Structure to design on (241 residues):
């Protein structure tokens, strides 16, 4: 029996990227254009559900839904510094860029960049949409599309001083104990959302086949214990907060 508390720390960005990429790979190999279309819809579903969770926490705390609170209620952190995120502007619009990304590195390592490009095209914009359809992020460049870095322009932050941004990041760290989710959770959610999308778009047998092929390869590349933990996690209610 897998004990979540023991195996969860073994999951990180590479696992999240890997299961997403493998699901895309087998959707593509088995079902072609229809599989790729289902992957796109699953990515949008996954991202919007993440945004909805963030919005629920934000509203429960009595805060409005805007771009500042979107940045405040983000659900993942990178304490291992596997990804390089650099701030390129704060006042009046928050800008950052990512010259090196652990997701991109993982997809490149395993020959899954084609599917990573789908993730990057749809994920962040739909995270913002799920949080609040009134907010907007522009992503003019992406590593998975061949650019030297990912570029993000976060509209509506309207910082008047750099200190306002640093104060927001301090608050983010203070509430991290209930806003952040580990990568076993994020990986399980990716499996859940894509599986549901495959069921809707391709049918239940197809969704099962894609999942099993992806989990088999995930196990070969990681371990049987991580496969079991991932599958069990995917059975959670990912709209619950």
């Amino acid at each position: 029996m897998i004990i979540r508390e023991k195996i969860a720390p073994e999951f990180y960005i590479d696992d999240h990227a890997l299961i997403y990429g493998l699901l895309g790979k087998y959707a593509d190999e088995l079902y072609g254009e229809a599989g790729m279309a289902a992957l796109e819809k699953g990515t949008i579903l996954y991202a919007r559900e993440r945004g909805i969770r963030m919005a629920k926490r934000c509203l429960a705390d009595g805060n409005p839904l805007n771009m500042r609170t979107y940045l405040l209620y983000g659900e993942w952190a990178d304490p291992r510094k596997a990804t390089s995120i650099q701030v390129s502007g704060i006042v009046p619009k928050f800008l950052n860029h990512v010259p090196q990304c652990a997701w991109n590195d993982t997809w490149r390592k395993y020959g899954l960049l084609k599917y990573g490009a789908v993730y990057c095209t749809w994920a962040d914009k739909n995270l913002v949409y799920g949080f609040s359809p009134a907010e907007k992020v522009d992503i003019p460049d992406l590593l998975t599309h061949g650019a030297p870095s990912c570029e993000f322009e976060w509209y509506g932050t309207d910082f008047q001083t750099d200190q306002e941004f640093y104060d927001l990041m301090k608050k983010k760290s203070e509430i991290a104990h209930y806003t952040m989710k580990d990568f076993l959770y994020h990986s399980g959610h990716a499996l859940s959302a894509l599986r549901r999308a495959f069921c809707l778009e391709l049918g239940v047998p197809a969704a099962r086949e894609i999942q099993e092929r992806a989990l088999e390869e995930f196990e070969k590349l990681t371990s049987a214990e991580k496969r079991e933990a991932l599958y069990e996690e995917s059975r959670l209610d990912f709209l619950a907060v």
Summary: The chain has ten helices and four strands. The longest helix spans residues 13-60. Residues 4-233 form one domain. The chain has a mean pLDDT of 97.
